Amino acid sequence: MKELLSIALLLFALASVSQGSESIVTDRPTQSASAFVLPQGDLLLEAGVSSEKVTAGIRNSTFLNALLRWGLTDGIELRLTQNYLGSKVLGERNSGFSPLTLGTKVHLMQEDGWKPQMSVIGQITLRTGDNRFKPSSSISEFRFNFQNTLSDNLSLGYNIGFISGENDYILYSAVLGVALADGWSVFAEPYGFFGDGDSDQRFNAGVIYLYQPNLQFDVSFGSGISKIAPDSFVGFGVAWGFN
Fold it and tell me: DSSP letters along 132-143, please?
């Protein structure tokens, strides 16, 4: 946990030097990806750290979770994800880079009354990274992202998708966000995965602070609901944009 806090503080310090004018819309810290697609030429870096207690003797950590997003054209963004992972199993520690994930997000529909804003993410996780975390085959994911504005300070986002690799999974998520005063907001989110008879169900909640239009900090925490889900998890993150 000390390592994670140190990295979080470093990310916050680096982010404080960024500049920009338009408010960013991020895909973190929720498990639900936003329906928003970056405008052409915009660049957004989202980074964080997290710790997950699986059982009493097993803990997984993400020392750096980095998602780089770039607006290729209006309505299409390119995405690159790279993590540096760690695990602790009965006192034995391992760490290394995760596989690289490449993808795109495409705008499909603007919000209009009851009709939600809608986009789709398509991405592939390659057989790269440290051998400890390398999958036996590439992993593809398709995810549809929706958002409805319920009021001036209340929004609902939800995703449905499919992951195909060593095993196949259907994923879902639904997040309720509440905007508070002075850039603060809170969220609550159930999400999970279904596949091969397994049901991994979790609950996530957190606080987001938009410090500047292009600079956001977040903290999130949650717990598992089903048997195979982790006991608990916590994360810290930052996002900053350039346009």
Answer: TT--SS-EEEEE
Phi, psi at residue 25, to the nearest 5°? -125, 115
| Contact between residue 217 and residue 211 where contact means Cβ atoms under 8 Å apart | yes
**119-122: Cβ within 8 A, 24+ apart:** 119/35, 119/36, 119/37, 119/144, 119/145, 120/144, 120/145, 121/33, 121/79, 121/145, 121/161
DSSP for residue 34 = P
pLDDT tens digits, one per residue of 66-93? 999 999 999 999 999 999 999 988 778 8
**112-167: per-residue pLDDT in tens?**
999 999 999 999 999 999 998 898 899 999 999 999 999 999 999 999 999 999 88
Distance of CA 151 to the CA centre of its chain: 24
